[in-house]
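Let us practice reading a record.
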Amino acid sequence: MTTHAVATLTVTNPESLAAYREKAGAALAKHGGAILQASGDLAIIEGEGTLPTAIALLSFPSKDAAQAWMNDPALSDVHALRRGSGTTTITLL
C-alpha cells in the first residue's frame, strides 16, 4: 500500500542541502520513492509555531520501501548530506 512521508527541514548549511538535492531523486527512486511536492514557500494558516525552511511530501510503494530507503547502507552518504544541512525530521504517515 502506498505510504507517504513528510520531511521537514530547517536549513543551516545550504551547500550541504544543494549537494543533497542533486542526489535525492535517484536515492528515492532506488526504493520506489518519489517527491510529490517540496516547497520553501510556507505559511501557517491555523495555530502558531515556527516554520521550517522547507517541507517535502514523499511517496513510497510501502512502509517497508520507506524504511529500506532510510536504512540502505549504500545511501548513507546521501542521508549524511541531508542531515548535515541542518535539522531534519521525516515522519511516515
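A brief commentary: The mean pLDDT is 97.
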